[in-house]
Amino acid sequence: MIERIETGARSSKIVKYNGVAYITGQVGEGATIQEQVKDCLSRVDALLTKAGSSREKMLRATIWLADMSDFDGLNEVWNAWVPEGHAPARACGESKLARAELKVDIIVDAACD
Known about the structure:
This protein is of the alpha+beta class. Helix content is 26%, strand content 35%.
């Protein structure tokens, strides 16, 4: 059975199927890459909890940066956020994001209850 959570006309914030929660891409507020990543990851945390999951259950993360020169700043926050021994498979690339002020967009898939 497919379960959709916080569904709108365009997308759902979470789609759960067969023990996996697919979390829609999250962006964050802030002037620096570190501020935006921290805010973005706090939103990911809230959605993981709502999905019956957690950081320890992440399977995969896809990260889009508006500028790859922010890669080190992203990793500074990311590395502190991911629980030791529970790093997901991860990809990171550069892409034009939805608004000019956005620096990062993070998409997570996680095992769930």
